[in-house]
Amino acid sequence: MKEFNIVKYETAIAEKSFGRDGIYDTLQLKFRFYRFLALYFLRDFFPCILIVVLSWMTFWIDYSSTPARVAMGITTVLTIVTMTNNIRSTSPPAGLFRSIDYYLLMCNLFVFAALLEYALVGLVPNKAYKKRKRSRKRNKKKGTELCTINNVYTHKDIFSQAMHEDVSEEADLPEENKRCDHQIDKLSRILFPGLFAVFNAIYFAFHRLHEDTVD
């Protein structure tokens, strides 16, 4: 078994009952194997970490770009599910829920939570964007009233002003969208990486201190 390293073996003598034939002394030989950490980390754990980190990229995409965010969210969910099934199929069969199964489950939950985060973004209104939009409409309305009172326009002047307002409004939209990030996205950019970092620190520290849990 090239993927394991023999750390130690134990011998023992124990009595075993053979039914009607009686009780006899038996010699027991126990081998304890440990997985190569670097091999398993690079093959199983590291790709899962990359997929989880990739699912956070949606937090930096404009929340109004629904096709882009939904497509990336669904892609990362399908990818982590496929990776989980491949890892389980290549691992030795076991009737119990293993340590790596817990890790894969948490990775699935993090990726799925990133997809649900966008659903929450759609339900909660963006206060900063609405406030900026109301302020822009209010300023535009005041400017229009002032011009109506103090000036008399010809048809040519009115057409030129309308064209100027349309061009300036289109030019302001991209800059406005960049500045008005959703408050849930801002929180998720800190919350998701922080929780995942804490989970990994606890997980690997526990198994590093208790090596018998990964044999």
Could you characterize what this model shows?
The protein has 215 residues and is α+β, with helices and mostly antiparallel strands. It has two domains: 35 residues, no CATH class; 127 residues, Neurotransmitter-gated ion-channel transmembrane domain (Methane Monooxygenase Hydroxylase, Chain G, domain 1), CATH 1.20.58. 67% of the residues lie in helices and 13% in strands. It contains six helices and two strands, in the order ββαααααα. Helix 1 packs parallel to helix 3, helix 2 runs antiparallel to helix 3 and helix 3 runs antiparallel to helix 6. The longest helix has 27 residues. About 10% of the residues have low confidence.
* Assembly state (oligomeric): single chain
What Rg, in angstroms, do the CA atoms define? 31 Å
- SS strand fraction: 5-15%
Distance between the termini: 13 Å
- Point out poorly predicted stretches: 152-159, 167-179
What is the helix tally? 6
Major pleated sheet: 2 strands, antiparallel
Apparent shape: elongated
Kindly state the number of beta strands: 2
Give me the CATH superfamily of the largest domain: Neurotransmitter-gated ion-channel transmembrane domain
| CATH fold annotation of the largest domain | Methane Monooxygenase Hydroxylase, Chain G, domain 1
Helix/strand structural class: alpha+beta
User: Can you tell me the number of structural domains?
Assistant: 2
Succession of helices and strands? EEHHHHHH
What integer is the average pLDDT? 76
User: What's the arrangement of strands in the largest beta sheet?
Assistant: 1-2
